[in-house]
TrEMBL record:
UniProt name for this protein: Flagellar basal-body rod protein FlgG
Keyword DNA-binding set for record: no
Record-linked SUPFAM superfamilies: Flagellar hook protein flgE
Species per Swiss-Prot/TrEMBL record: Alloyangia mangrovi
Subunit structure as annotated in this protein's UniProt entry: The basal body constitutes a major portion of the flagellar organelle and consists of four rings (L,P,S, and M) mounted on a central rod. The rod consists of about 26 subunits of FlgG in the distal portion, and FlgB, FlgC and FlgF are thought to build up the proximal portion of the rod with about 6 subunits each.
Signal peptide location: none
PANTHER family for the chain: FLAGELLAR BASAL-BODY ROD PROTEIN FLGG, FLAGELLAR PROTEIN
Length: 261
């Protein structure tokens, strides 16, 4: 009887599904977080009777075969890169991307990571960095006596220095896009890494065709839909219970067969 093994694969798949949903719910308030969903594929089939097999001397063939599936497996997790809502913070260093694209961050090991989290700060040297203190690329350093800054929708950073009423342009923020955003690898700390699946990073200027614009004084909220996640959680729980019931039923059938005298 294969039902025990088949149902066990279903229980393991739903356990993974619950793990993914739980992570979505846990990050419902994480800036720039993108929800994920687990995707599944069926396993190989045991062919008992082949489709099209000859059933008579006259050459008649079977219209259908007899195939027994061996269960399910988790194929992967798909990140849903829909736009999150924009929340106003009134912090002049907070920036939200309205549309496609990622900020580029220079990592300590020399590599680059990408993020939708625009919660930026100033370092002791006046450089724009993320919350972990990593430099935002391209590097922008503000003058020592900067009073306030202005960031346009196209990423031009201007500083108001001292008592001057005319701003000084100090740099240009850029964005990066990918052919396959879902193929990026999550690193934690709201950062992603490019992979072979995502394709090479494509530098762009905010406002270019197919690229988002910047909103100063806003942050992008998580795109997690709590109601949808709770619904998916209930469905996963019921599927887990049904697989558990299948194991219980198979066990009862095997017990009944063993008791035959």
């Amino acid at each position: 009887m294969k039902a025990l093994g088949i149902a066990a694969t279903g229980m393991m798949a739903q356990q993974t599904n619950v793990d993914v949903i739980s992570n979505n719910i846990a990050n419902a308030n994480t800036t720039g977080f993108k929800a994920s969903r687990a995707s599944f594929t069926d396993l190989i089939y045991e062919n008992i009777t082949r489709e099209g097999a000859v059933t008579a001397e006259e050459g008649n063939t079977r219209p259908t075969g007899l195939d027994i599936g061996l269960g399910v497996r988790t194929a992967g997790t798909v990140r849903l890169n829909t736009q999150g809502g924009l929340a106003q913070t009134e912090n002049q260093l907070d920036m939200a991307i309205d549309g496609r694209g990622y900020f580029t961050v220079n990592m300590p090991d020399g590599s680059q990571a990408y993020t939708r989290d625009g919660s930026f700060r100033l370092s002791a040297e006046g450089q724009i960095v993320n919350e972990q203190g990593y430099e935002v690329d391209p590097g922008i350093v503000l003058p020592d006596d900067t009073v306030s800054i202005s960031i346009s929708e196209t990423g031009i950073v201007s500083a108001y220095v001292g008592n001057d009423t005319t701003p000084v342009e100090v740099g240009q923020l850029t964005l990066t896009t990918f052919v396959n955003d879902a193929g990026m690898r999550p690193l934690g700390n709201n950062m992603l890494q490019a992979t072979v699946a995502s394709g090479d990073p494509i530098p762009a200027t905010p406002g270019d065709e197919g690229v988002g614009i910047l909103r100063q004084g806003y942050l992008e909220s998580s795109n997690v839909d709590i109601i949808r996640q709770i619904t998916d959680l209930i469905q996963a729980q019921r599927a887990y219970e049904m697989n558990s019931k299948a194991i219980e039923t198979a066990d009862q059938m095997m017990s009944a067969a063993n008791q035959i005298r």
